[in-house]
Sequence to fold (284 residues):
Amino acid sequence: MATIIDGKLVTAKIREEIKNESAAFEKETGVKPGLAVIIVGDDPASQVYVRNKGKACEEVGFYSEIHRLPEETTEEELLSLVHSLNENEKIHGILVQSPLPKHLDEALIVNNIRYEKDVDAFHPVNVGKIMIGDYNFLPCTPAGVMELLKAYDINVCGKEVAVVGRSNIVGKPQAMLMLHANATVTICHSRTKNLSEVLNRADVVVMAIGKAKFLKADMIKEGAVVIDVGMNRDENGKLCGDIDFEECEKKASYITPVPGGVGPMTITMLMKNTLTAAKTSLEK
Ligand code: NAP
Fold:
């Protein structure tokens, strides 16, 4: 039976560290890390994510602002808010909650966030910095996966890692972080032929495709580490990941549950990036 990687436990420990580090930083410099979150429209899932980000800021002692804009907000209005937050000294991190309503160009908005305040690490400058290994921020979900591995002393150096999914926010940066950690990385996607063959030789599998319980036990090798980024609803409407947990738990050496695995780490990494942004803002 696999060891279950407890994301809630790891997240609680890291948030405590961030809280202490932030308090010490504020005492020394008089600067309180500040995060601004912008949400446009009333998508219920996004409302929950934004509320949780506000709560996390409170928990670690950060200043936070939540800007709730109506669905009909124009690109000009949204850009004007982003530009004013870029100049706001109380704000070190800016996050625009995705998805935006269709009439707003998400890439244009992200490109207008000052990259030093882009705590999601989605700005092309930050993406490039990650590629060359010279970065301040890491994208939150892949960074959370790396922290979970670290917390359980799972070293990927020299190991075969398969990342399934190639999105800009999870799959691609995840593969890059694994590469930086000296893994031999294979990126799989919907056109990958013989996926099971690739996964069967992987020491570590990271699933990020958004397909409920897709990964079955016969697709992984005995003792593999399996990490589940997916967040889906099963046939009964229950939250589940991309991994068939019940099957894979019996064959894997380590496994992350959904909920309670990677999910809690994402917001924690956002807090870490905001603290980093506050610290680097004083370096200029
Ligand atoms: P996405 O943009 O939809 O990308 C999905 C990726 O999976 C694509 O690269 C796609 O390949 C690949 N894919 C789809 N079906 C496949 C299959 N049958 N075999 C192999 N690859 C397949 O999704 P995302 O934004 O990366 O998110 C992935 C999952 O992670 C979702 O469930 C999302 O909710 C979850 N998520 C969780 C967190 C968290 O905090 N825990 C954060 C972000 C996302 P192609 O490129 O070929 O189409």
Remarks:
- The chain has a mean pLDDT of 97.
- The domain at 30-114 is CATH 3.40.50.10860 (Rossmann fold).
- The chain has two domains: 30-114, 140-263.
- The chain has ten helices and eleven strands.
